[in-house]
Amino acid sequence: MRACIKISIMLIIAMSLMLSSAFAKSYEEIKALFDNQQYDEVIKETTRVLSKDKGGDKTAELYYLRGLSYDLLGKIDWAIEDYNKAVNIYPGFGEAYVALGQLLIETNELNAAENAFNSALELIEEEPISLTSMGYIRLIQNRVKEARDFLSRAIATKDAPSQAYANLGYIEYTEGNLDDAQDYLETAITKNPEDYTAMFTLGLVYMLKNDFMQASDCLKKVVENNPEDLEAHLAIAKSYEQLGLKEAAINHLNEALKLSPNNNNISNWLNRLKEE
Hints:
Blueprint: H1 2-35, H2 39-50, H3 57-72, H4 76-89, H5 94-106, H6 110-123, H7 128-140, H8 144-155, H9 162-174, H10 178-191, H11 196-208, H12 212-225, H13 230-242, H14 246-259, H15 264-275
């Protein structure tokens, strides 16, 4: 009887090892699919493997990979669900908390996002995306001092996101510290040339410094990226007016009036320029 029990135990162990080996192989294959940006295949294969698995750190990683794939395909609700599953299975999964927090910001669930980023920061010291995101949340909450602290910590890290510099630049702009604002915003744009929000704010900074040529260069890029940006049309019209480029200013005011047809201020401004 004891011999039979020993044989049974050995068989169970052997089967368990075989399953673990097969699972590890599946994970590596799925990771390769993800690295090759085959996100639909990642979702298909993770769903197949997860239907057979009962838990463990690798299971958490598979939920994370599937969540990332949903995230990159724009399926936010499913991504959030998988990120939550990943951290519930493995509470030490800092990267999953970061990804979860970023999507919760997108869905305007700021308290839940803050909890996710706090968990990430407990697990990954001075994690730059979490610091930047906490700074953004504090900025939305108008807790500017705390926002500045988080963002300053973020830019002190090796891989500081461009958004940390952009948000610090915005804070300095609103507080009238134009040189500091310019430095932060230029760094943000160097790191991410397609950050048109930072580009717009930098244009406003140049306007306040009476550098209307630089302002118009920034604002032109913003308008080219989004021709329906009313505020950018108005700002560049002001810059062109200050530069004496009346026709260019009129052109942008005409575009602004198309976007806001009942705006008397724009109409009056446009009529004044035409009469001069």
